[in-house]
Amino acid sequence: MHAITIEQPGGPEALVWADAPDPVAGDGEVLVEVAASAVNRADVLQRQGFYNPPPGASPHPGLECSGRISAIGAGVSGWSVGDEVCALLSGGGYAQRVAVPAGQLLPVPAGVDLVTAGALPEVVSTVWSNVFMVAGLRPGETLLVHGGSSGIGTMAIQLAKAVGARVAVTAGGKEKLARCAELGADILIDYREQDFVEEIRAATGGAGADVILDIMGAKYLTRNVDALAVNGRLAIIGLQGGVKAELNLAALLAKRAAITATTLRARPLEEKAAIVAAVREHVWPLITAGRIHPVVHGTFPMREAAEAHRVLESSTHVGKLLLTT
Q1: Within 13 Å and on the Cβ side, how many CA atoms surround 34?
Q2: Is the torsion defined by CA of 5, 7, 12, 17 positive or negative?
Q3: How far apart are CA 46 and CA 52, in angstroms?
Q4: Distance CA 84, CA 249 (A)
Q5: Which pLDDT belongs to residue 252?
Q6: Is pTM beyond 0.90 here?
Q7: What is the DSSP code (8-state) at residue 319?
Q8: Phi, psi of 38, rounded to the nearest 5 degrees
Q9: Which residues of the chain have a pLDDT value below 70?
């Protein structure tokens, strides 16, 4: 098969479309003929040499894909050759074929085409597991989403609104904020010109956000705690603003607040399967009903993954970037 390979870490030019060994479906796995994968920040970190795949995972980047099942390994039930699926991966999505644990498969939801389905597994699993399974966002609460126009952000807005929460977002510029508003965001904060702590307090009568979904890490840590409501929950899923920061624990104690930090890629298979099952139960009906949808900024041939990475790093996009085989 062909796949995107990384011989040496570096810039987008390090992504090379080349011959690669064909994967084989092992016990409990299926082989998927990839129709599309999507670009995630984790792929950029892997390309740069900062985020290697976990042991046993494919060396190729790509944390999600869509396609058709072409082979089924021993011990797999409930799936058939030819089924159209999308999948959460530990790696390998930037390829023509990938082996996937059966517990990480999802059917392509009704009303979504096969290619577009490649934009769903990673963002939906990330948002559902962090905002709902861990942080426990409830109807009537306020969610603050940093990076509201990103793939994660556009999905978080829609899911939070679907369960009856109020949504605040930060994004850079009027155009991105307008797109967030179209998806249902109630409170729009331009991080380039406004202080999100002041804005969220003003919009909530001084209370603050009940849940914050953060991609920045160290840079926003202190201000995120300041922006939390009493009994608030801060869910950190990215480190774009650094990895080390000081925190006044008295501020955390005063608010009886909680901070969690998670990644999906290195979780045990059982945990990933539980998340995927919850997504299928709770999110897939919302998609098939047309209440939420993947937001796709653009589509690139997989051999042009380098250009897709350049667009992602420019932060000019809204939603997801797809790669097609």
Answers
A1: 34
A2: negative
A3: 6
A4: 49
A5: 95
A6: yes
A7: B
A8: -130, 155
A9: none
